[in-house]
Prior knowledge:
Layout: E1 25-28, E2 33-36, E3 42-45, E4 51-54, H1 81-85, E5 88-95, E6 100-107, H2 118-121, E7 130-134, E8 145-149, E9 157-161, E10 174-178
Antiparallel strand pairs: 1-4, 2-3, 5-6, 7-8, 9-10
Amino acid sequence: QGTTDDGLDTTEIVLLPQTDPLPARTTEFTPPSISERGNGSSETTYLPGANLTTPAPSTLGFASNTTTSTEIATPQTKPSCDEKFGNVTVRYIYDDSSKNFNANLEGDKKPKCEHTDCEKELKNLPECSQKNVTLSNGSCTPDKIINLDVPPGTHNFNLTNCTPDIEANTSICLEWKIKNKFTCDIQKISYNYRCTP
């Protein structure tokens, strides 16, 4: 600590006690204020009261009574929705009374709806409708969204026997004929035959 010819204190540093429990150090630090004197000398005066809070490594020479902690919390990572739900296949079940479909989810991981409205969205689907349904509810990332592409109702088709009488003992011919018009893309429709005993 020194004084000038006129008795002013030129270096005064005030350190306040540490009150922040976080690993950052609070150091009392004030920038210098320089004023020119008439006699050509300069004076550096430190004004107490300004605070600068910075994270400081332990190698800095600031006076402090706080120890620093290097413990870092890592966020929990969510699993992948593709891993959680696996491949999801949608099977549409036609309801003759309502002329609508219900969608059942199938897959190797037995997918189930987590989202509250998901189960409702899989019921009473009008033919040829399209919609996206979110299965997940924030438990994984990114959300698992399936696209429902509802087929036309079975009432739109007739299965006809086209087997010629002469070949009836050795072969069978079946043909689907469209009975009613519908708005579904005809290119997406495939026909499957299943024989049951």
